[in-house]
Design goal:
It is a single chain. By secondary structure, the chain is an alpha/beta fold. It has two domains: 172 residues, Uncharacterised protein family UPF0261, NN domain (Rossmann fold), CATH 3.40.50.12020; 217 residues, Uncharacterised protein family UPF0261, NC domain (Rossmann fold, 3-Layer(aba) Sandwich), CATH 3.40.50. Helices cover 42% and strands 18% of the residues. The strands form three sheets. The protein has a six-stranded parallel beta sheet with strand order 7-6-8-9-13-14, with helices on both faces. Strands 2-1-3-4-5 form a five-stranded parallel beta sheet, sandwiched between helices. A three-stranded antiparallel beta sheet has the order 10-12-11. It starts with a strand and ends with a helix. It holds the Pfam family UPF0261_C. InterPro entries: Tobamovirus_resist_UPF0261 (IPR051353), UPF0261 (IPR008322), UPF0261_C (IPR056778), UPF0261_N (IPR044122). This is Tm-1-like ATP-binding domain-containing protein. It comes from Paenibacillus aestuarii.
Length: 404
């Protein structure tokens, strides 16, 4: 069985560039399989999977798409058809890796196909929009985005380099050998931020010493979504949700929301979980100039040139506490909430920029008042980054898992 380097490309507009990539990849000893997602126009090279088949798999026909003349419908149809074809090829064991190239339409089609493939399958997207917001395209997968610098419109001194680098990236991934291991340790999912790293590190070390593998997810919105998705897949034995900061972005209008399903997967699956209030003192914005005028009078902290943090208020913390309780109360499995009464992040400590006893008190009170008896509540006269607090959470989760 051949594991092909699959190239997804609109051959009516990107045929020259596709051939250039195809030749480079084949010169490195790999076999290619080209999928044509273009609608009209001449093709410079033959496709292994034609656009008529892709249109049919997408629920239409090439003739109908041409007759309709609607670009939006055409892109969606070819996207659905490509996703279906990739799933078919993968089930047949023919996908060793995938590469695509294009603008917004090509990126939409190519990355949709990539997201349908499992984590670990090499995925490279050369795109004119790779330097912008790539979250809708990458999602929760391991897509490698490469910025094309110039438009993908023929070969020139710049495009040859970016096309080649993208092609060789795929070649390297496909030829590389990942050492296999027979160790299949039970997996624990944890959430962290820079301002809760000491806590997560201490808990992680404790659990790893006891035979568990800890996957830490950066709580940046997409990180929380990725964790929730992995929990739903059934691969997780327990959840150490230390850093629930994404909920603050929901309430305060920050950029790092993980969406409405955050903090729900473990509760619904009955997975043991220990939850804390890490970094709920902050919501995230980009550079200082992106903070809305209505919020400029609030307590701000310039984390770096691209990240500005805003301190959550008493009212916001009350709402966050109520949200946490409402999401955890229906839990089908053992659940505990840990409250660090001396601060919820490295910035929320005496003498630090976000030290806010009143704000924290509102958060803690809302949790106490709304959490039902189904959820265990533990309070510590400690800061979240105190080692003893971290170990207590890890111990509790371990007991939940082993006594389930």
């Amino acid at each position: 069985m051949v594991n092909y380097a699959v190239i997804v490309c609109a051959l009516d507009t990107k045929g020259i560039e596709c051939k250039y990539m195809k030749d480079l990849i084949e010169a490195e000893g790999l076999q290619t399989l080209v999928i044509n997602t273009g609608i009209i126009g001449a093709q410079l090279i033959d496709a292994d999977v034609g656009n008529e088949e892709i249109a049919r798999l997408g629920g239409s026909s090439l003739a109908k798409l041409i007759q309709q003349g609607d670009r939006g419908i055409a892109v969606e149809t070819m996207m659905n058809g490509t996703v279906a074809k990739l799933a078919e090829l993968y089930c047949e064991g023919k996908v060793g890796g995938i590469i695509s190239l294009g603008g917004s339409a090509g990126t939409t089609i190519g990355t949709a196909a990539m997201r349908a493939l499992p984590i670990g399958v090499p995925k490279v997207m050369l795109s004119t929009i790779a330097s912008g917001n790539t979250r809708p395209y990458v999602g929760m997968t391991d897509v490698t985005m490469v910025n094309s610098i110039v438009d993908i419109s023929g070969l020139n001194q710049i495009s040859r380099k970016t096309l080649a680098n993208a092609a060789f990236s795929l070649v390297g991934m496909m030829k590389g050998h990942i050492p296999e291991t027979n160790e299949m340790k039970p997996i624990i999912a944890a959430t962290m931020f820079g301002v809760t790293t000491p806590c997560v590190t201490a808990a992680k070390e404790y659990l790893e010493q006891r035979g568990y593998e800890v996957l830490a997810f950066h709580a940046t919105g997409i990180g929380g979504q990725a964790m929730e998705s992995l929990i739903e897949s059934g691969l997780i034995s327990g959840v150490l949700d230390i850093t629930t900061t994404e909920l603050a972005d929901d309430i305060a209008g920050g950029l790092l929301s993980a969406g409405p399903r955050r903090l729900e997967a473990a509760a619904a699956k009955g997975i043991p979980q220990v939850v804390s209030v890490g970094a709920l003192d902050m919501a995230n914005f980009a550079g200082l100039d992106t903070v809305p005028e209505s919020l400029r009078a609030r307590k701000l902290y310039k984390h770096n040139p691209n990240v500005t943090l805003i301190r959550t208020t008493v009212d916001e913390n009350k709402l966050i506490g109520e949200m946490i309780a409402s999401k955890l109360n229906p839990s089908l499995g053992p659940t505990a909430v840990f409250l660090p009464l001396k601060g919820v992040s490295a910035l929320d400590d005496e003498g630090k920029p976000f030290f806010g006893p009143e704000e924290d008190k509102a958060l803690f009170s809302a949790i106490r008042q709304n959490l039902n008896s189904n959820v265990q509540l533990l309070e510590f006269e400690a800061h979240i980054n105190d080692e003893g607090f971290a170990v207590a959470m890890a111990e509790t989760l371990l007991n939940m898992i082993e006594n389930k």
